[in-house]
Design brief:
Elements lengths: L1 H6 L6 H8 L3 H8 L2 H25 L4 H17 L8 H8 L5 H27 L9 H20 L4 H12 L4
Helix pairs in contact: 4-7, 5-8, 5-9, 6-7, 7-8, 8-9
Amino acid sequence: MNAFWERGYEGLSVEDLVQCTGIGRGSLYDTFGDKHSLYLAALDRYILFNRAQRATLLEYEGTLSEALEHNFQVYIDLLLSDPAHRGCFLVNASLEMAPHDSEVSQKVQAAFADIEEVFYTILIRAQAAGELDWKRDPHQLARFLLGTMISIRVLARSNAGRETLEDIMHTALSVFQ
């Protein structure tokens, strides 16, 4: 997963994967079938890891603004702590592979829909708690938050600094004030 995350699908040969995994070419093919299947398995693993992180947002007990800021700050900290500046594997896959690979595209779109659903759920909770006006469309706001999260992840990959990423976060969160 880390090799695909850092170098992308096209950036790795089967020989590179043999070296990264420490298993023989025959075992690699016996286990995964081919490079593409291994890539899909790596993407699935990343998506599962990410899903577990998103679950913590649903458990966060605070105001809407606090929950959103906490969520974005966790991702900013994670992205900036990576010395390889890999960004987000999911976003990387959406840019490199999804435009021409329907299997990757389906996985990426499903994962983005899951993220949007988490945002939608906390926005509905905020409406029920009186923190967010009922006239605000939670679907539209959830898509806006997803877009903000994706842009932060892309910019982190291109070595944007903390100040830039946090400025984006704060500007996005100002929509909820």
